[in-house]
Amino acid sequence: MTLRDQDKGSRLSLFAKHAAKYYAVGATGIVVNLGLLYYLTEYVGLWYFLSYALGISVSITSNFILNKFWTFRDSIDSQKIIVMYVKFVSVSLVGMAIQLGSVYVLVESLTVYYMLAALISICIAGAINFIINRRWTFGVKF
Q1: Which residues contact residue 129 at a Cβ distance below 8 angstroms, ignoring those fewer than 6 apart?
Q2: Reduced to 3 states, what is the DSSP secondary structure of residue 113?
Q3: Could you report the per-residue pLDDT of 75-110, keeping only the tens digit for each?
């Protein structure tokens, strides 16, 4: 194995490590998001769409904090936390639009249960968010 092959393997290993951690953080975000969605819809009586928007909003911040201090901690400069947060929120807003659009279509047009529709929409937006956040927000170049 050449040095170049080892470097490629190392980069691939780091990508896999980041992906695993990012999706573990995402799982906590799903719990926050769906927990608020269910609670606000079923117990507070808000429209599922509004509850979902609020759940996504809260999970954006919790996901940023966990990704900053756990997933990408060895790859980022602590001095740029505000810039990173703004980038993370920007990417998350795109993901939020994808999630809200897909959940609305699934529920209103296809009569999918709102909790299942939310889970499906999270899966759709999650992969897009990982790729963009890893490179742009947290500055991982490889």
Answers
A1: 91, 92, 94, 95
A2: coil
A3: 656 667 888 889 989 999 999 999 999 999 999 999
